[in-house]
Amino acid sequence: MCLMNFFFLFIISMLLLLCSFYFLLNEIIYFLEWEVVSLNSMSIVMTILFDWMSLMFMSFVLLISSLVIYYSKEYMSNDININRFILLVLMFVLSMMLLIISPNLISILLGWDGLGLVSYCLVIYFNNVKSFNAGMLTALMNRVGDVFLLLAIAWMLNYGSMSYIFYLEFMLNDKQMMLIGILVMSAAMTKSAQIPFSSWLPAAMAAPTPVSALVHSSTLVTAGIYLLIRFNMLVYNSFMGQLLLLMAGLTMFMSGLGANFEFDLKKIIALSTLSQLGLMMMILSMGYYKLAFFHLLTHALFKALLFMCAGAIIHNMNNFQDLRLMGGLTLFMPLTCSCFNVANLALCGMPFLAGFYSKDLILEIVSMSMINLFIYYLFFFSTGLTVCYSLRLVYYSMTGDMNCMSLNVLNDESWVMLKSMLGLMFMSIIGGSMLSWLIFLTPSMICLPYYLKYMTLFVCIMGGFFGYLISNISLFFMNKSLKYYFISMFSGSMWFMPYISTYGIINYSLKIGMNVVNNFDQGWSEFMGSQNLYNKLVYYSQFNYFMQNNNLKIYLMIFILWIIILMMFLILL
Q1: Do 225 and 296 touch, CB atoms closer than 8 A?
Q2: Three-class DSSP category at 49
Q3: First vs last Cα of the chain: how many Å apart?
């Protein structure tokens, strides 16, 4: 089943890629309309939008999902329900397809809800308490975004149709359209895990690694970015855009900082995804939607590769994910480590790899833009943090001696996984240059002074240097310091956001519920009501039974007394 799905998705992906090139070069857009129901004056129409952007994004989603399914053939080989897993992944991809090709908010909601539902099923795939908690947090946090989208649909009724694409330019300064823009932006922020909705993204790491590779590269978390790319006119040059710029900048900074205090291999890569989503949101809110889309595609390639390599390492290390238990992996798994390093360098923006073309262009455009110093600082400092945690990740896992059990058999003999990784490594090397030549047909001249031109390189080198210092130098005194402990707690727990969004909301309501149960349900209402009444009736019936059973004289006296009372009552009447 895995092989058949892989070939099918891969062939469709290549065809869609060729179609997207043709549509892009000839500036073609196709609308396909299918009238589902026509009753009196009402008609329900299903609309599909094919342009270069939707076709290219679909092609990349299908390419990554085909390789992920092929990778799962070996990674999930011990799972007896592997066919169910593959079907869930295919449903996930289908929901994403529906979202991508929809210019209509109703059909977008179908894909959007499909992503939320199937992601819950995939997060709880390994049935344990941690997975259930993570799945519930993911599902409930995404429901907030679904509500915002439903409200946006309700407001779209004012225009007579759900197809937003017809009204965006025409009603740009309309108050109702601005409200729809706010609702869509809020929905996109929940799906793409921007502050204050960030806590679900690292929790979703409870899913199997192939799912993480798919979710964190091209599907679930990018749905919000893609929706905002379609609604980019409403965000740009408005208060919403400024708010989004600030929130995305803080998300990027927070996740980059948190990744430097994390020791879970998958969580570091998840926080790295969050950082890159913040970067996309920032450049999108500044009005450069093509740049955001460009970075979305290049990021999908190397992030999927990064997760696949992490999965291969975890698979070989008997499901250990702690960085401190790794070390010297280059000696045992040279091919996997090569792919891992290529993906890491692409993430850092190493020249002529996929990430370089998008990240460097974004940072140079930012240097030319009219933004304040704080936002500029967030852009560049967060980029430095990316290099910092990437180098720390490589240092802990690749160098030194193996810190795990000596009985572990580490090798590179998982050929099915390696083939998937090598395919994505090839795309991570050539993908950036290919896309930059295609999307930006006329190269733009970026003229900057020397110190700004070299700022990106300087920030990356400094980030790498600090990453080496954090990893290599013994932080004995810092670890003993209480101040450092609180800093690491604050940064490592994503600024206490998971505690606020889970314990913070649930704790007080549960305490109030417990007080109500103790004082009312099991307290006064029990004492004054049903339980007390029941006890009294039991007592009186026992007393009556005792009287009747044990003493005939008392029983006869009571009987005579009862007859006298009845007689007196009759005489009085």
Answers
A1: yes
A2: strand
A3: 93
* Dihedral sign computed on CA atoms, order 338, 344, 348, 354: positive
Helices (H), 124-238: 129-156, 175-191, 200-203, 209-215, 220-230, 232-235
The DSSP element (H or E) to which 164 belongs, if any, is none
- The CA angle 231-369-255, to the nearest 5 degrees, is 70
For the entire predicted model, the pTM comes to: 0.85
Residue 566, CA distances (Å) to 152, 329, 547, 569, 572 in order = 77, 100, 21, 5, 10
CA 467 to chain centre: 26
Tell me the CA distances in angstroms from 405 to 305, 402, 535, one per residue in order. 27, 8, 63
For tokens 């390789």, the residue is 67
Cα separation, 399 vs 328, in Å, equals 5
* Sign of the dihedral through C-alpha 150, 225, 140, 89: positive
Q: Is 4 exposed, middle or buried (0-12, 13-18, 19+ CB in 10 A)?
A: exposed
Residues 6+ apart with CB under 8 A from 239: none
Residue in the block written with tokens 């190397």: 302
- The DSSP code for 503 is I
Encode pLDDT of 34-63 as tens digits: 888 877 777 778 888 898 999 999 999 999
Total count of residues recorded for the chain: 573
- Residue ranges per structural domain of the chain: 1-234, 236-476, 502-572
Eight-state DSSP code of residue 364: H
C-alpha–C-alpha distance, residues 403 and 406, integer Å: 8
DSSP, collapsed to helix, strand or coil, labels residue 199 as coil
Write out pLDDT tens, residues 173-192.
777 788 888 898 899 999 88
Omega of the bond prior to 196 within 30 degrees of 0, cis? yes
Identify which of 61, 24, 101, 71 has the alpha carbon closest to the alpha carbon of residue 301: 61
Instruction: Report the alpha-carbon distance of residue 141 to residue 120 in Å, rounded.
Output: 11
Residue at 206: amino acid letter: A
Closest CA to 56 of 362, 298, 355: 298
- pLDDT score at 58: 92
